[in-house]
Structures are given as structure tokens and as C-alpha cells.
Amino acid sequence: MKGISYSRYGGPDVLEYGEVRDPRIGPDAVLVKVRAAAVNPVDWKAREGYLDGMLEPVFPVVPGWDVSGVVVRPGVSVPEFAVGDEVIGYVREDFLSRGTFAEYVAAPVRTLARKPRNLTWEEAAGLPLVGLTAYQVLYQALRVRRGQTVLVHAAAGGVGSIAVQLARHLGARVIGTASEGNHDFVRGLGGEPVRYGEGLAERVRGLAPEGVDAVFDTVGGEALKVSANLLAPEGRLASIADGEVLGYGGRYCWVRPDARDLLKLTELAEQGVVSVHVSQTFPLERAAEAYRLNEEGRTRGKIVVTVDWEGEGEGETAAG
Prior knowledge:
Blueprint: E1 2-5, E2 16-19, E3 29-39, H1 41-47, E4 56-62, E5 66-74, E6 86-90, E7 95-98, E8 104-108, E9 112-114, H2 121-125, H3 128-141, E10 149-152, H4 158-169, E11 173-177, H5 183-189, E12 192-194, H6 200-207, E13 212-217, H7 222-228, E14 231-239, E15 251-252, H8 259-270, E16 278-283, H9 287-295, E17 302-306
Parallel strand pairs: 4-7, 10-11, 10-13, 11-12, 13-14, 14-15, 16-17
Antiparallel strand pairs: 1-2, 3-5, 3-8, 3-17, 5-6, 6-9
Helix pairs in contact: 3-4
């Protein structure tokens, strides 16, 4: 099958498009025919070796954890899905090897849920990782409740834009940092935008003089330090970007594959609570360009890679 792979750590230039090994499915996994796969910052950080101490690479690595596609073969112990089911997944394993930037992926059942019927393939592919991250941080780590004020950093980005929508659904007031060019976008999500950078503390205090009840940090560094001083009494702080959050009494969060949480996100998407903004799409063979764009760090919403199956049957397998 065709796919994207890399045989050593490095920049986008190490990515190659060509033949990659066919996936094997275990008893509690399914073979998914990939329709779309989203790019996430963690993908290129893994490719550059930043996660080497956490996730062992098995070269050549096929990158990618997000997917939307069609089940073409269930494992022998999978009653949850059948051939032809449309699914989404956060297909992360505890090592780097078999990712979603290919024509097929073997996906453990614990990583999958049914695709939201009202989302396109591209939108659906952009939901799992960022949606699960936002859901698990807001609902489980920060325990956001109605009437609270939440500060979300990078509110126009992949995780941030979903976090704004979910926090609003929970009944919270949301202040979101964003560049001025993204302020209207953040307002459209239901947030109150503020410009990041120097003077951020004063701008947030102008909107929330008594402090904020929860901070969702997605950028780390100076933003995390400033945020810790913006909390109201009993306020809570969580970061997905900077382990230094522990020194401020907060929680460091790493998103987990969870089929139940993903199913909840599917339901919220179908109810119109959560939408996914896809800023740009690339065909699979141009995935390196998608990575380069994502690494610039100014993406609104999601960048998605698509697999063109025009003229081919849904029931085909990687082995033909």
C-alpha cells in the first residue's frame, strides 16, 4: 500500500511517499481504509525525536494518529464494528510505527468510535486528538462547571477551538487568547478574544477582575507563568504543553485514547455543539507540505491530509 514514512529523525525532508508495509490486525482491532488523516503538532515533534524518551520508534515509521475511514476487516474478537462502518479514531500506540498517513491502518477498538454523520471525512479526521484533549482536560482535569470563567490559550488552534466550544456547552464564560486576525473566529465559537503577548495579564484582568476559575494552557512558557497569576481562589490550572505546570500546582495532561470519550464527542458533533474548522487539505503524497505548514504554528483549526479512493470499491483490503 502507499503511505508516508520516515526512517530517521529529522525535518519534513525525511518524509517519503511510497510503498509501506501492509498493516496486520490483531483480534481486538479493525482494518480501516483511510479517507483522511489530520496533522497535529505532536506528529512532527515525534518525527524530530522530541518524544524519544517516551515512545520508542520502530523504523520506518508511518506517522499520524488521527483518522477517519471505513472498516474493511474486523478482528476475530470485534463485535463492535462491521465491514462498511464509518469510523473515526485516535490511533495511538505506545510506540511509533504504524500510523494513519497511509491507505490503511490497523486500529485497536479502544481507539475508535463511529464517525459523526454530519461531518465530512476531512472534518471528522480533525476531531479525535484535539477533541479528546479538550474533553479530557475540561471535563476531567479542570472539572469546569456552569457559571465559571475559563481562560483558553491559542483559542483559534486545533485544541483551543474545540475547547472554547466545549466550555461554552458546559455553561462557562470563555476568554481565549488569539492573534487579532483570529478574534472574529474566536467570537464565532462563543469566546471573548484577547491578544496574547506582552500585557496579557492586564487584558485578562480587565475582563475578569476577580480572576479566572480555570486555565487551559496549550502553549506553555511565559503564557503558563502569567496564567498561574490570573487564577481566582480555588482556581485550577492544566497544561498540555509544559510540565512546569506541576510547579504551579496544576496538572500536566497527555490525551488518552478512549472509545467512550470519543463516542461522546461524536454525539456532541451530531448535536451541533462541536464543529471542526479545516483550514487546508493536502493529498497524501503532499503530506510533507502539510507538516511544514503546521510547524509554522499559525494554523486556524486543522490541516488535513486526504486519501483519494475514487473508482475503487470500499470492500478492498490492503492485500487486494
